[in-house]
Amino acid sequence: MDAPGDAVAVRTAVVHARARWAGAVLLGLALAHTLVTLTLALVGDGRWTDPLLALLATLLGLSAFGVHSDTALALLRDHRWHPDIPLALVREMDGEFLLRRPALSELRATPRIAWATTAAAAVVLAGAVLRAAW
Prior knowledge:
- By secondary structure, this protein is mainly alpha-helical.
- The protein contains 4 helices and no strands.
- Helix 1 (4-45) packs antiparallel against helix 2 and helix 2 runs antiparallel to helix 4.
């Protein structure tokens, strides 16, 4: 029988696997904003603060995606055969284990950092959009 801690780790990993897509959305929005503000700066606006803020939001969005993904993999590494893991996540995890097994042994689950990075990406993106609109 599985320990209660195993089920909690699996649920947490599934939450982080889903939350990484929030990072992907933030990445896409920030990248689009970066392209728009960069184009405006090049065409004649000359304000380079806006593209730099948008670029920071883009990098934070990418980081949010990666930290959530790595946190999910680190949590699932030790509970790979748990029955509560969704089938799609099992398939993805198996692919990751085949591609980079040595690197996975070094991963650490960092859920607080994952959430903080996602929040920072959202705040910086909102600030960059508001600043550009100002």
